[in-house]
Write a structure and sequence with these properties.
Blueprint lengths: L3 H8 L3 H8 L9 H14 L4 H7 L3 E8 L13 H11 L3 E7 L10 E5 L4 H10 L3 E4 L9 E6 H15 L5 E6 L1 E3 L2 E3 L1 H13 L8 E4 L3 H13 L6 E4 L2 H13 L9 E6 L12 E4 L3 H15 L8 E5 L1 E3 L5
Parallel strand pairs: 1-2, 1-3, 3-4, 4-5, 5-13, 6-9, 6-10, 10-11, 11-12
Antiparallel strand pairs: 7-8, 12-14
Amino acid sequence: MATIKDVAQAAQVSAAAVSRVLNKDENISVSPEVRTRIFQAAHALGYVSPRQRKAAEVKTHLTIGVADWRILRPDRHNVRLSSLTCLVQMMTDQYEVSFVRLAFGQPQKVDGVIALGVFTEAEVDFLRSLSFAIVFVNSGQQSYEFDQVQVDFERGYEQMVSYLLDRKQYTGIGYIGGIYDGPGGRIGVTRAQALRRLLEKRGLYDERLFHIGEISRESGYELACKAIKEHTLAEAMLLGSDEVAEGAMDAFREMGVRIPKDVAVIIYQDLQTLESKWPTGTCLEMYPDYVWENALELLFGRISGKRSQAVTVMVPTRLKIGDTA
């Protein structure tokens, strides 16, 4: 059985810090990163503090459905769901939550729904049939029936372009990404389009530097190899997904392209489909923790009956500066 010392060692902090964080001591001053590291270590080791054991006796158990088929291929794993339980533990002692991935037209018993992306009216009706408590994330819903979290994608792109061109003084930005056409619609189109619009405003868009195939590791590898051979890599490249990034980075390594000396790399992170191999890399995070936290807070408010009025929250994307750009 794991001990508090085991958690402290895994999180690389003191046992006292672990105890105070897990017991929700509001007087301890630690960074959000350290707090997250402690909860993740405790979760991975299966350590439950005495306070958590006591709280567990009165916790409400919820099952939350995640509708992600509009932004993630159905044949790809959503690895982000495995970390949401830990996030809930950091947020509240009131609920114990299980997360399940939903599929359109396949009913599941859930207490609430987090729906990501833009849905058709038929899809909205299906989600409504599952639960009265629904939070739409970046859906552009015109109705005030539902709670919404709107993600400021454009601002995230603007921050990225400004960082690369104005601060780092790179001469241009290119793109390697993919598009998936499936029953839930097209995925991946807006990623390249948003970058193109911003570059066109600056007179810096070059069609030769945009390489688009499928959303897969294999496609990322092939597109990167082709770009290297044809000398169509910009000084900075946005890689359109985790899978594409994995293939492109393998191609860069095999063909001797140094990062960031030869090419600066930014990885577009939507919902994670892979555990990151570049935890210190520069990323454009579209759904960082605070997006999920806001969605969960809104959902808990609806489920508990504390609020009946729909609320819309606007949150920014996050440009995480790392060592690849």
